[in-house]
Every structure is written in C-alpha cells, then in structure tokens.
C-alpha cells in the first residue's frame, strides 16, 4: 500500500500486483511480479555496492564541486567490475 498515489509523481513506474482474499493472482500476474522483483533486486544490489564506498551513506565533508566527480568515479568502478565478472 506504500506505492499508492506514486503515479502522480512518476508516470513510468511498475507496481507489482497484489492478491486479496477474494482475488487470487493468476499465473501471468505471478510471472510479471517475479520479473519486476528480479529487476528490483538487481538495482538494490547495485545501490548496496555504491553504499560500500560510504559516499552516499555519510555526510560528504569535502568540496561540493568534486562530489559529482567522485560519485561518477565510484559508479564507473562498479560498472567496470560488473563488466569484468560477465
């Protein structure tokens, strides 16, 4: 229920289907939910890797002009590492 009304802010969002006592999910709905969950987990793993560098987790105490540069470098390292694993 936490996603109700989010379409007002973001038009390109995919919300998983929910079942209720009277309405059970079909197999197609379950497969769609599983696909959405696998995409969400992929994104959550990338966010966790970024947070290991502590730049998004803690207060940034250096020059603000270099913040974007450092975030981009960290994301580049993560992308490089991910591409090397594939």
Task: Give a written overview of the molecule.
This protein is mostly helical and 86 residues long. Helices cover 51% and strands 0% of the residues. The protein has a domain of 57 residues.
Salient structural properties:
single chain; 86 residues; mainly alpha; 2 helices; 51% helix; 0% strand
Rg is: 18 Å
Portion of residues in beta strands equals under 5%
**N-end to C-end Cα span:** 37 Å
Report the count of strand segments: 0
Topology:
Blueprint: H1 27-51, H2 67-85
Short account of what is shown:
This protein is an all-alpha fold and 86 residues long. It contains 2 helices and no strands. The chain has a domain at 30-86.
């Amino acid at each position: 229920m936490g996603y109700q009304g989010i379409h007002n802010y973001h038009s390109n969002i995919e919300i998983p289907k929910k079942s209720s006592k009277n309405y059970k999910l079909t197999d197609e709905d379950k497969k769609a939910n599983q696909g959405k969950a696998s995409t969400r987990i992929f994104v959550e793993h990338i966010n966790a890797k970024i947070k290991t560098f502590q730049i998004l987790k803690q207060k940034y105490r250096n020059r603000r002009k270099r913040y974007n540069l450092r975030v981009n470098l960290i994301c580049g390292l993560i992308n490089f590492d991910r591409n090397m694993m594939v």
